[in-house]
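User: Here's a structure from my thesis project, written as structure tokens. My advisor, Dr. K., wants to see whether a designed sequence matches the one we expressed. Can you design one independently, without my sequence as a hint?
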């Protein structure tokens, strides 16, 4: 039978089914990567060249790359505040990730090692919160921000991201794998909960922290709803909100600037994921085994 056919690749026996499966996965990956390749190429081309067929890059790759220009990015920065929106997005996302890791790791430590009344009930409620759509929490969140006078304030956008049920669950599942003998040794040396959390648990949980941080980074970076409600003003918008402003230019849409915004919006999270992909995968797999 054809599925029984096999070959040797790099000394390993590979069946025809595995070859077909790999080819299908490669085609699927190519389908996801093609829009990214097009966006990267279009960000450095004039609007007239963007929709040419066949693409300029395929007709003459060397000259096409040699003729790349920064006009779209410079125009977006000069006329549509690309730099300011990028700064706001980096500030909000970076601060949210750090605050989320701090709060979530403390909560995860309590659920993993502390003993208190109602622990199982609270953990069940936490898991249930993962199923609650974020849109249902908008009204109470905005009301609280108004009471605290944090509307149109970057801090008012950072605080709602402080706790993530998914991050707490992921870190808790990873923490319970850490040998308790290490904690007992710290107890004998006189360390308290905070010292054990900081000096024992966190240093041993790097992959889980990275996985949680990357997940939170991607969520906050791409979020549109909360920034559009909390932050207002031309110099106080994140990249997704500013891109929506460009899309609203019905009569004369700035195509090159929109492509530049899309390119920068995709480049930053892609760079973050590629930089931490090994730790990200290790953190998720380690938590799932816990």
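Assistant: Designed independently from the structure alone:
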């Amino acid at each position: 039978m054809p599925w029984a056919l096999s070959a040797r690749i790099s000394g390993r026996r590979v069946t025809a089914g595995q070859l077909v499966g790999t080819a299908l996965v490669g085609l699927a990956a190519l389908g996801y990567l093609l829009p990214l390749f097009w966006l990267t190429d279009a960000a450095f081309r004039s609007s007239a060249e963007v929709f040419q067929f066949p693409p300029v890059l395929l007709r003459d790759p060397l000259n096409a790359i040699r003729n790349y220009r920064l006009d779209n990015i410079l125009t977006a920065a000069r006329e549509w505040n690309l730099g300011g929106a990028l700064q706001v997005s980096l500030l909000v996302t970076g601060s949210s990730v750090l605050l989320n890791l701090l709060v979530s790791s403390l909560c995860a430590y309590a659920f993993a090692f502390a003993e208190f009344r109602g622990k199982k009930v609270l953990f069940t409620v936490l898991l249930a919160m993962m199923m609650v759509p974020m849109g249902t929490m908008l009204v109470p969140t905005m009301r609280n921000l108004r009471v605290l006078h944090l509307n149109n304030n970057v801090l008012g956008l950072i605080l709602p991201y402080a706790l993530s049920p998914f991050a707490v669950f992921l870190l808790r599942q990873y923490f319970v794998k850490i040998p308790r003998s290490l904690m007992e040794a710290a107890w004998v040396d006189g360390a308290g909960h905070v010292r054990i959390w900081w000096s024992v648990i966190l240093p041993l949980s790097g992959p889980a922290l990275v996985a949680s941080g990357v997940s939170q980074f991607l969520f906050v970076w791409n979020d549109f709803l909360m920034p559009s409600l909390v932050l207002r003003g031309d110099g106080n918008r994140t990249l997704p909100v500013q891109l929506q402003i460009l899309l609203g230019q019905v009569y004369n849409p700035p195509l090159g600037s929109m492509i530049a915004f899309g390119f920068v919006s995709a480049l930053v999270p892609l760079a973050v994921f590629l930089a931490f992909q090994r730790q990200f995968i290790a953190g998720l797999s380690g938590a799932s085994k816990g």
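When you compare it with your expressed construct, this may help: Residues 2-75 form one domain.
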